[in-house]
Amino acid sequence: MKTITVRYFAIFREHAGVDEETLSLDVTSAMDVFERTRARHGSSEPTGHCKVAINDEMAEWSSGVNDGDTVLLFPPVAGG
């Protein structure tokens, strides 16, 4: 188990009901964190257009997470 702080933005924040939370999770990658929090908060956003950062640096979904990391989840951004 790792203690991970997760920060939510836009629709993810709305689903979670909080800006940020600290969770104890059995995870190895950013994708694992996303999947656990998506299930926890009932979000149906696919990862394809979402972005992730670890400790304030943009990352890949396959990037590893360590105990004490902060994972930031960004939903798709509409533009036009």
Explain this structure.
It is a single chain. Helices cover 22% and strands 31% of the residues. The chain has 80 residues and is α+β, with helices and mostly antiparallel strands. The chain has a single domain, classed as Ubiquitin-like (UB roll), CATH 3.10.20.30. Strands 2-1-5-3-4 form a five-stranded mixed beta sheet. A hairpin with a 2-residue loop joins strand 3 and strand 4. It is globular.
Measured by DSSP, the beta-strand proportion falls in: 25-35%
CATH topology call: Ubiquitin-like (UB roll)
User: Helix tally?
Assistant: 2
- Tertiary shape: globular
CATH architecture: Roll
Determine the mean pLDDT.
89
Q: Based on helices, strands and strand pairing, what is the structural class?
A: alpha+beta
**How many distinct folded domains?**
1
Question: For the record, what is the CATH homologous superfamily label?
Answer: Beta-grasp domain
- CATH class placement: Alpha Beta
Unreliably modeled segments = none
Beta-strand segment tally? 5
Describe the secondary-structure layout:
Elements: E1 2-8, H1 11-16, E2 20-25, H2 30-41, E3 51-54, E4 57-59, E5 70-74
Parallel strand pairs: 1-5
Antiparallel strand pairs: 1-2, 3-4, 3-5
Short description:
By secondary structure, this protein is α+β, with helices and mostly antiparallel strands.
Entry keywords:
single chain; alpha+beta; Ubiquitin-like (UB roll); five-stranded mixed β-sheet; globular
